[in-house]
Write a structure and sequence with these properties.
The protein is an alpha/beta fold. It has two domains: 137 residues, Aspartate/ornithine carbamoyltransferase (Rossmann fold, 3-Layer(aba) Sandwich), CATH 3.40.50; 155 residues, Aspartate/ornithine carbamoyltransferase (Rossmann fold, 3-Layer(aba) Sandwich). 36% of the residues lie in helices and 14% in strands. The chain has a five-stranded parallel beta sheet, with helices on one face. A four-stranded parallel beta sheet has the order 2-1-3-4, with helices on both faces. The protein binds N-carbamoyl-L-aspartate. N-carbamoyl-L-aspartate (NCD) binds next to helix 2 and helix 6.
Length: 317
Protein backbone atom coordinates (compact mmCIF):
# COMPACT_ATOMS: atom_id res chain seq x y z
CA UNK A 1 0.00 0.00 0.00
CA UNK A 2 1.77 3.21 -1.16
CA UNK A 3 1.42 6.12 1.29
CA UNK A 4 -0.43 9.14 -0.10
CA UNK A 5 1.72 12.10 -1.22
CA UNK A 6 0.95 15.18 0.85
CA UNK A 7 -0.25 18.32 -1.02
CA UNK A 8 -2.42 21.39 -0.42
CA UNK A 9 -2.65 24.45 1.87
CA UNK A 10 -2.33 22.50 5.09
CA UNK A 11 -1.22 19.38 3.29
CA UNK A 12 -1.04 17.30 6.48
CA UNK A 13 -4.61 17.67 7.78
CA UNK A 14 -6.06 14.25 8.58
CA UNK A 15 -3.12 12.41 6.98
CA UNK A 16 -1.30 9.31 8.18
CA UNK A 17 2.44 9.90 8.44
CA UNK A 18 3.90 6.51 7.53
CA UNK A 19 7.00 7.13 5.43
CA UNK A 20 9.24 10.02 4.41
CA UNK A 21 8.27 9.16 0.83
CA UNK A 22 5.19 11.33 1.51
CA UNK A 23 7.28 14.51 1.78
CA UNK A 24 8.54 16.93 -0.83
CA UNK A 25 10.51 20.15 -0.51
CA UNK A 26 7.33 22.22 -0.53
CA UNK A 27 5.46 20.45 2.25
CA UNK A 28 8.69 20.28 4.29
CA UNK A 29 9.00 24.06 4.00
CA UNK A 30 5.46 24.38 5.34
CA UNK A 31 6.14 22.04 8.26
CA UNK A 32 9.48 23.58 9.20
CA UNK A 33 7.94 27.07 9.14
CA UNK A 34 5.39 25.80 11.63
CA UNK A 35 8.14 24.20 13.74
CA UNK A 36 9.90 27.59 13.92
CA UNK A 37 6.67 29.09 15.25
CA UNK A 38 6.48 26.32 17.84
CA UNK A 39 10.00 27.11 18.99
CA UNK A 40 8.99 30.76 19.50
CA UNK A 41 5.86 29.72 21.45
CA UNK A 42 7.91 27.44 23.73
CA UNK A 43 10.74 29.92 24.25
CA UNK A 44 8.43 32.90 24.92
CA UNK A 45 5.52 31.40 26.86
CA UNK A 46 6.08 27.67 27.09
CA UNK A 47 2.65 26.59 25.88
CA UNK A 48 -0.42 27.37 23.78
CA UNK A 49 -3.97 26.06 23.55
CA UNK A 50 -3.85 25.16 19.83
CA UNK A 51 -4.70 21.50 20.52
CA UNK A 52 -7.05 22.02 23.45
CA UNK A 53 -9.66 19.27 23.47
CA UNK A 54 -7.57 16.96 21.26
CA UNK A 55 -6.34 13.58 22.46
CA UNK A 56 -3.26 11.68 21.27
CA UNK A 57 -2.78 7.96 21.95
CA UNK A 58 0.88 7.02 22.28
CA UNK A 59 1.21 3.29 21.60
CA UNK A 60 4.75 1.94 21.97
CA UNK A 61 5.51 -1.76 21.50
CA UNK A 62 9.27 -1.03 21.66
CA UNK A 63 11.35 0.99 24.14
CA UNK A 64 11.63 4.74 23.68
CA UNK A 65 12.77 7.75 25.66
CA UNK A 66 13.04 10.69 23.26
CA UNK A 67 10.37 9.86 20.71
CA UNK A 68 7.63 9.03 23.19
CA UNK A 69 8.41 11.81 25.66
CA UNK A 70 8.81 14.47 22.98
CA UNK A 71 5.44 13.53 21.45
CA UNK A 72 3.84 13.66 24.91
CA UNK A 73 5.56 16.98 25.69
CA UNK A 74 4.48 18.34 22.29
CA UNK A 75 0.85 17.46 22.94
CA UNK A 76 0.98 18.78 26.51
CA UNK A 77 2.54 22.10 25.52
CA UNK A 78 -0.24 22.61 22.97
CA UNK A 79 -2.98 22.04 25.54
CA UNK A 80 -3.95 18.54 24.35
CA UNK A 81 -4.21 15.31 26.32
CA UNK A 82 -2.39 12.00 26.02
CA UNK A 83 -3.21 8.31 26.48
CA UNK A 84 0.24 6.81 27.10
CA UNK A 85 0.64 3.07 26.45
CA UNK A 86 4.31 2.28 26.83
CA UNK A 87 5.83 -1.05 25.95
CA UNK A 88 2.25 -2.37 26.04
CA UNK A 89 3.03 -4.69 28.99
CA UNK A 90 0.13 -3.38 31.05
CA UNK A 91 -2.34 -3.29 28.15
CA UNK A 92 -4.52 -6.00 26.61
CA UNK A 93 -1.77 -6.63 24.04
CA UNK A 94 -0.31 -9.06 26.64
CA UNK A 95 -3.68 -10.84 26.57
CA UNK A 96 -3.14 -11.42 22.85
CA UNK A 97 -5.04 -8.46 21.43
CA UNK A 98 -4.07 -7.80 17.79
CA UNK A 99 -2.69 -4.52 16.41
CA UNK A 100 -5.87 -3.82 14.37
CA UNK A 101 -8.11 -4.30 17.42
CA UNK A 102 -5.79 -2.21 19.58
CA UNK A 103 -5.78 0.75 17.18
CA UNK A 104 -9.55 0.47 16.64
CA UNK A 105 -9.95 0.69 20.40
CA UNK A 106 -7.69 3.70 20.73
CA UNK A 107 -9.33 5.59 17.90
CA UNK A 108 -12.60 5.42 19.81
CA UNK A 109 -10.95 7.69 22.39
CA UNK A 110 -8.21 9.59 20.58
CA UNK A 111 -7.86 11.90 17.54
CA UNK A 112 -4.42 10.67 16.49
CA UNK A 113 -2.34 7.57 17.26
CA UNK A 114 1.45 7.59 17.48
CA UNK A 115 2.70 4.02 16.97
CA UNK A 116 6.06 2.31 17.45
CA UNK A 117 6.12 -1.38 16.60
CA UNK A 118 8.85 -3.97 15.87
CA UNK A 119 7.50 -5.04 12.46
CA UNK A 120 8.25 -3.30 9.16
CA UNK A 121 4.99 -2.06 7.66
CA UNK A 122 3.09 -2.16 10.97
CA UNK A 123 2.18 1.54 10.78
CA UNK A 124 0.66 0.99 7.32
CA UNK A 125 -1.30 -2.01 8.64
CA UNK A 126 -2.58 0.08 11.56
CA UNK A 127 -3.54 2.89 9.17
CA UNK A 128 -5.52 0.42 7.09
CA UNK A 129 -7.71 -0.49 10.05
CA UNK A 130 -7.94 2.97 11.57
CA UNK A 131 -9.89 6.04 10.38
CA UNK A 132 -7.90 8.46 12.53
CA UNK A 133 -4.36 9.49 11.51
CA UNK A 134 -1.51 7.16 12.44
CA UNK A 135 1.96 8.62 12.94
CA UNK A 136 4.76 6.08 12.47
CA UNK A 137 7.21 6.45 15.38
CA UNK A 138 9.39 3.58 14.09
CA UNK A 139 8.34 0.34 12.39
CA UNK A 140 11.09 -2.19 13.10
CA UNK A 141 14.03 -1.76 10.74
CA UNK A 142 11.76 0.11 8.29
CA UNK A 143 11.34 3.83 8.82
CA UNK A 144 11.30 6.51 11.48
CA UNK A 145 9.87 9.50 9.60
CA UNK A 146 9.54 11.97 12.47
CA UNK A 147 13.18 11.39 13.45
CA UNK A 148 14.23 12.16 9.87
CA UNK A 149 12.14 15.35 9.97
CA UNK A 150 13.88 16.59 13.11
CA UNK A 151 17.26 15.53 11.69
CA UNK A 152 16.69 17.47 8.48
CA UNK A 153 15.35 20.48 10.41
CA UNK A 154 18.54 20.43 12.53
CA UNK A 155 20.84 20.08 9.51
CA UNK A 156 19.17 23.10 7.90
CA UNK A 157 19.43 25.07 11.12
CA UNK A 158 23.10 24.20 11.66
CA UNK A 159 24.24 24.76 8.06
CA UNK A 160 21.66 27.23 6.69
CA UNK A 161 21.25 24.97 3.67
CA UNK A 162 20.96 21.34 2.64
CA UNK A 163 21.92 21.46 -1.04
CA UNK A 164 25.62 20.97 -1.57
CA UNK A 165 26.33 19.24 1.76
CA UNK A 166 28.34 16.03 2.15
CA UNK A 167 26.64 13.75 4.64
CA UNK A 168 28.42 10.75 6.17
CA UNK A 169 26.15 8.12 7.75
CA UNK A 170 28.16 6.00 10.14
CA UNK A 171 27.37 2.73 11.89
CA UNK A 172 24.50 0.32 11.55
CA UNK A 173 23.13 1.23 8.15
CA UNK A 174 21.46 -2.14 7.72
CA UNK A 175 19.14 -2.15 10.72
CA UNK A 176 19.07 1.58 11.57
CA UNK A 177 15.64 2.90 10.60
CA UNK A 178 16.73 6.49 11.26
CA UNK A 179 19.38 6.34 8.52
CA UNK A 180 16.89 4.75 6.13
CA UNK A 181 14.40 7.58 6.58
CA UNK A 182 17.04 10.32 6.61
CA UNK A 183 18.72 9.03 3.43
CA UNK A 184 15.35 9.10 1.65
CA UNK A 185 14.53 12.58 2.91
CA UNK A 186 17.96 14.00 2.04
CA UNK A 187 17.58 12.53 -1.44
CA UNK A 188 15.13 15.39 -2.13
CA UNK A 189 18.21 17.64 -2.06
CA UNK A 190 21.51 17.73 -3.85
CA UNK A 191 23.70 16.00 -1.26
CA UNK A 192 26.67 13.68 -1.46
CA UNK A 193 26.45 10.56 0.73
CA UNK A 194 29.21 8.62 2.43
CA UNK A 195 27.86 5.35 3.82
CA UNK A 196 30.37 4.16 6.43
CA UNK A 197 29.79 0.77 8.04
CA UNK A 198 31.29 -2.64 8.60
CA UNK A 199 30.66 -4.99 5.68
CA UNK A 200 27.79 -6.82 7.43
CA UNK A 201 25.93 -3.60 8.27
CA UNK A 202 25.83 -1.95 4.85
CA UNK A 203 22.93 0.18 3.63
CA UNK A 204 20.20 -2.07 2.16
CA UNK A 205 20.38 -2.41 -1.66
CA UNK A 206 16.93 -0.85 -2.19
CA UNK A 207 18.07 2.37 -0.51
CA UNK A 208 21.27 2.46 -2.56
CA UNK A 209 19.07 1.98 -5.63
CA UNK A 210 16.85 4.92 -4.60
CA UNK A 211 19.91 7.16 -4.19
CA UNK A 212 21.18 6.08 -7.63
CA UNK A 213 17.78 6.72 -9.20
CA UNK A 214 17.94 10.31 -7.94
CA UNK A 215 21.33 10.67 -9.63
CA UNK A 216 23.06 11.48 -6.33
CA UNK A 217 26.70 10.74 -5.63
CA UNK A 218 27.53 8.19 -2.93
CA UNK A 219 30.43 6.13 -1.64
CA UNK A 220 30.38 3.05 0.57
CA UNK A 221 33.33 2.81 2.97
CA UNK A 222 34.37 0.93 6.07
CA UNK A 223 36.51 3.45 7.91
CA UNK A 224 35.34 6.76 9.33
CA UNK A 225 38.86 8.22 9.12
CA UNK A 226 38.47 8.18 5.30
CA UNK A 227 35.63 10.73 5.45
CA UNK A 228 36.15 12.72 8.63
CA UNK A 229 37.83 15.64 6.81
CA UNK A 230 35.29 15.64 3.95
CA UNK A 231 31.94 15.49 5.72
CA UNK A 232 29.75 18.48 6.55
CA UNK A 233 27.49 16.25 8.63
CA UNK A 234 28.62 13.12 10.47
CA UNK A 235 25.47 11.16 11.37
CA UNK A 236 26.51 8.46 13.84
CA UNK A 237 24.26 5.56 14.86
CA UNK A 238 24.20 2.74 17.41
CA UNK A 239 24.60 -0.88 16.34
CA UNK A 240 21.02 -2.16 16.76
CA UNK A 241 21.67 -5.08 19.10
CA UNK A 242 17.98 -6.03 19.32
CA UNK A 243 17.88 -6.80 15.56
CA UNK A 244 20.67 -9.40 15.62
CA UNK A 245 19.76 -13.08 15.72
CA UNK A 246 23.42 -14.03 16.33
CA UNK A 247 24.89 -12.08 19.26
CA UNK A 248 28.43 -13.16 18.36
CA UNK A 249 27.98 -11.09 15.17
CA UNK A 250 26.88 -8.13 17.28
CA UNK A 251 29.93 -8.49 19.53
CA UNK A 252 32.18 -8.52 16.47
CA UNK A 253 30.96 -5.09 15.27
CA UNK A 254 29.70 -3.28 18.36
CA UNK A 255 32.91 -1.36 19.07
CA UNK A 256 33.78 -0.82 15.45
CA UNK A 257 33.95 2.97 15.60
CA UNK A 258 34.13 5.62 18.31
CA UNK A 259 34.10 9.36 17.64
CA UNK A 260 36.67 10.97 19.95
CA UNK A 261 38.11 14.50 20.34
CA UNK A 262 41.22 13.12 18.61
CA UNK A 263 39.26 12.19 15.46
CA UNK A 264 37.35 15.48 15.63
CA UNK A 265 40.64 17.37 15.17
CA UNK A 266 40.66 16.27 11.52
CA UNK A 267 37.04 17.33 10.90
CA UNK A 268 35.99 20.64 9.31
CA UNK A 269 35.34 23.47 11.78
CA UNK A 270 31.83 23.65 10.34
CA UNK A 271 31.12 19.91 10.48
CA UNK A 272 28.31 18.83 12.78
CA UNK A 273 28.11 15.51 14.60
CA UNK A 274 24.60 14.10 14.87
CA UNK A 275 23.15 11.02 16.54
CA UNK A 276 19.49 10.01 16.99
CA UNK A 277 20.46 8.63 20.42
CA UNK A 278 20.67 6.50 22.53
CA UNK A 279 24.45 6.22 22.20
CA UNK A 280 26.20 3.19 23.61
CA UNK A 281 29.80 4.23 23.16
CA UNK A 282 29.93 5.46 19.52
CA UNK A 283 30.55 9.08 20.53
CA UNK A 284 32.78 9.68 23.52
CA UNK A 285 31.38 11.99 26.21
CA UNK A 286 34.42 14.23 25.72
CA UNK A 287 32.95 15.28 22.33
CA UNK A 288 29.83 16.75 24.00
CA UNK A 289 31.56 20.04 24.82
CA UNK A 290 32.56 20.54 21.16
CA UNK A 291 30.21 23.14 19.60
CA UNK A 292 30.03 20.85 16.56
CA UNK A 293 28.15 18.24 18.64
CA UNK A 294 24.59 18.66 17.45
CA UNK A 295 22.81 15.76 19.17
CA UNK A 296 21.40 17.86 22.00
CA UNK A 297 20.04 20.40 19.49
CA UNK A 298 18.43 17.49 17.63
CA UNK A 299 16.60 16.40 20.78
CA UNK A 300 15.17 19.86 21.42
CA UNK A 301 14.16 20.29 17.81
CA UNK A 302 12.31 16.97 17.99
CA UNK A 303 9.70 18.52 20.22
CA UNK A 304 9.18 21.57 17.97
CA UNK A 305 8.88 19.44 14.85
CA UNK A 306 6.43 17.06 16.55
CA UNK A 307 4.39 20.02 17.84
CA UNK A 308 4.21 21.26 14.25
CA UNK A 309 3.27 17.86 12.86
CA UNK A 310 0.52 17.24 15.43
CA UNK A 311 -0.94 20.71 14.87
CA UNK A 312 -0.96 20.19 11.12
CA UNK A 313 -2.30 16.61 11.18
CA UNK A 314 -5.04 17.61 13.61
CA UNK A 315 -6.06 20.49 11.34
CA UNK A 316 -5.34 23.35 13.74
CA UNK A 317 -2.45 24.90 11.77
C1 LIG B 1 16.28 5.58 17.37
C2 LIG B 1 15.23 4.52 17.06
O1 LIG B 1 14.39 4.18 17.91
O2 LIG B 1 15.25 4.06 15.92
N1 LIG B 1 16.01 6.27 18.56
C3 LIG B 1 15.21 7.39 18.52
O3 LIG B 1 14.05 7.32 18.18
N2 LIG B 1 15.79 8.57 18.79
C4 LIG B 1 17.67 5.10 17.26
C5 LIG B 1 18.12 3.90 18.03
O4 LIG B 1 17.36 3.29 18.79
O5 LIG B 1 19.29 3.58 17.89
Amino acid sequence: MAPKPIKGINPFRGQDILSVKQFDRENLRYLFGLAEEMRIIVERVGHSNLLQGKVMASLFYEPSTRTSSSFIAAMSRLGGAVIPINEVVYSSVTKGESLPDTVRTLESYADVIVLRHPEVGSAAVAAHYCEKPIINAGDGVGEHPTQALLDLFTIEEDHNRVDGLSVAMVGDLKYGRTVHSLTRLLSLYNVKFYFVSPEILRMPPELIEEVKQKGLEYEELEDVSQVIDKADVLYVTRVQKERFTDLAQYDAVKDYYVITPEIMKRAKQTMTVMHPLPRVGEISYAVDADPRASYFRQMKNGMYVRMALLTAVLGRA
